[in-house]
Amino acid sequence: MFKGPVESKNEAAMSELVPEPRQKPVVPMKPTGINTNLLGYIGIDTIIEQMRKKTMKTGFDFNIMVVGQSGLGKSTLVNTLFKSQVSRKSSSWNREEKIPKTVEIKAIGHVIEEGGVKMKLTVIDTPGFGDQINNENCLRPLDLEFMKHLSKVVNIIPVIAKADTMTLEEKTEFKQRVRKELEVNGIEFYPQKEFDEDLEDKTENDKIRQESMPFAVVGSDKEYQVNGKRVLGRKTPWGIIEVENLTHCEFALLRDFVIRTHLQDLKEVTHNIHYETYRAKRLNDNGGLPPMTVETEENHESNL
Ligand code: GDP
Ligand code: MG
User: Fold this and answer.
1) Are residues 258 and 266 in contact, defined by beta-carbon separation less than 8 angstroms?
2) Which residues, at least 6 apart from 187, have a Cβ–Cβ distance to it below 8 Å?
């Protein structure tokens, strides 16, 4: 319960104890730019403009994490993403920087601005999982086991790295095999079938699920001159494999999928499905109390 305003005679004596009464919030003025005289006009159509204004001010946050065995090309892929057209304009990137071996979880962030919209893109690079343990006797490949657990918590986008090391037939065959393995093992990947909202979604996402996934990509942090243009690529005795050329690999497809077509949906599924499921589970586990903080849980586990 809130106390009423402090009486003036007590004010001096209590000034150290009682905070000053809060000022009344300023009541916003009626919007003036809208013609409110239109018969039957409610103004629902202004919602889009209101959302746009708010988004322009606050910007977007987007987080991606790359996981997989050591030496797979994860760090290179992260760098490729930042050096590709996503952040060509970013000046903070040192083009000569070498990619060190990843020994800890590392977040690389860039604020990218385009057309007045700000996006804080954070890519989390991880050391190769399984590097520290002896998994020779595992029944099941570690990445399948890993994905099975992760698919309940985050959106998984499977990627085949170093696609330039495969022939076209091998690539097609490998893509099919990965799709089959994911299905047989009940691993759900993004975009999940059950979250397609309508027929249009379904048609678009079916194409991605059946043709694009897993994206076979090539990463590189080196630029070469091709037809008068500087492009990211890998130089081979047979020519330059261009990272962003769709006839060479699917990197541009992956980037466009993640950023240009599905970014908002990825965020919504993470927030509305994954986070809510996690929250409900933690509340249940905790007998209805708010979830413990991560630190508490870690301390708790390390004490066991
Ligand atoms: P990480 O351990 O998964 O982070 O792997 P790195 O990004 O450090 O890459 C390991 C090695 O693979 C490096 O020598 C890279 O140059 C090389 N590499 C990375 N991406 C590709 C690729 O798409 N094709 C080829 N052929 N080699 C790659
Ligand atoms: Mg690495």
Assistant:
1) yes
2) 144, 147, 148, 151, 156
Is the CB of 76 within 6 Å of ligand 1?
yes
113-117 long-range contacts (CB < 8 A, ≥24 apart) are 116/56, 117/55, 117/56, 117/59, 117/60
Listed residue (117, 119, 57) closest to 82, CA to CA = 119
Hey, what amino acid is at 17? Answer: L
* Cβ partners under 8 Å of residue 103, min gap 6: 127
Question: Which ligand has the nearest atom to the CA of 220?
Answer: 1
pLDDT tens per residue across span 149-202: 888 899 999 999 999 999 999 999 999 999 999 999 989 899 998 888 889 989
Residue holding tokens 């240009």? 260
Please give the number of the atom of ligand 1 that sits closest to the Cα of 243.
Answer: 23
Q: Helix, strand, or coil here: 82?
A: helix
Residue nearest to atom 6 of ligand 1 (CA): 73
